Here is the input.
Amino acid sequence: MAVIALAGPPALLLVDTAAALMRGWRCDARLDLLGGALVLGILVAVAIVRVLSRGRVLLAHFAPQICLASLATIFSLVAAELAIQMLLPGLEPPVHLRQPSQHALNRLAPGVMRGITGESRTVINSQGVRGSEMPAAANRYAVVCLGGSSTNCTYLDQSETWPAVLEQNLQAANPVRQCWVGNVGIPSLATHEHLKFLNESSLPKQVDCVIVQAGINDFMQAIAPQRPTPPYWTRSQLWRLINTVARRYLNSVDILVEDDAGASYVRRRAQRSAADKATTLPDLQEPLADYVQRFRAIIARCKELGVRLVVTSQPVLWTTDANPENEKLFWFGRTGSNQYLATPPLREGMDEYNRATRQACEELDVEFIDLAEFNGRDEIFYDDCHFTEEGARQVARRIADYLLAHPAPKGGKAGSWEGGKRAEFRDPPTVRSSHLPKANP
Here is the structure.
């Protein structure tokens, strides 16, 4: 009985984990790995005690106390889970925001990502945004960049992400007006989450301009197999609270399944390299229609908020011609357990999403910046769509040139929506500091 009381709960957790692994779940988070190791350690310890003669005597002698303690522990954990669900429903930060006032330092393994040098810092401000603290509203022009990992620039230093370089460029063009650019890009998030952020967060109400770079994560979700369900214990509010507290005291930032050395990229690339490649693009008619509907909702929400919306296309390294060296860098496009889309249909699909984005902007008179000139350029990307240091600089320069050449229209928060005309930017004009977009006083 004592053995069952000691080993029963961790054994159930182990079975839960094993079932998730059989469904295809992978344990990438360090704290989840630690939790699994702890459960396995308890089972091993119980087995050792059970084998030893002295251990069997102790288990028999203290069986009532062990059973009582086990029941009390189970009851306490269940009570804690219920209490947390009722009293602390919002343990995770709002969508597109991080745990406030956090810092992380990445030291990449040599050769994993081309075009990135040295250590990279990630600094999250008190609002949960990657960037500096937002200055006071007086004499401020505030921009928030909304997107996925290509906006977040996970492995670039804080000062080298394209939103940060955009801030530097705008500030240099007009030192008199204080410019702030916040980065709320989060890896893997798509237009579902972008729209939720605009609907639920108070941050869009505080800024003058929202820049959206979207499409690739919606595309990947459209072709991807259904994600395996993780173990129940990783989804419990109690475990999430433990994760939250651990991240705070370990001074780290939760960055999906990324690791500070970039080792996960090596594994992902190897998986794609060894998998079968499909050469035909799946039918995207339905997911593209859903994507356009969500994008229209994003446009409508920004109009409702009175916030200027600027949309960019999503550039990629993919080309229709095979490039063996670049193929080694790719890891996107998973369509099944051991199948990925080949590079040409990946590019074809991304082009379709970019066309859909552009068409929605044209129809609803929204500003659109075409970044297609960066497609397929080795110096711009270190993998499928993520920017090198040079890539981030060039993307920031292009967006800055557009904003400087197209000041926000007067009136309203960032200018009257009806007063602003959609403009597509291809050739950067001569920039003057007086063209810096003007926020409402």
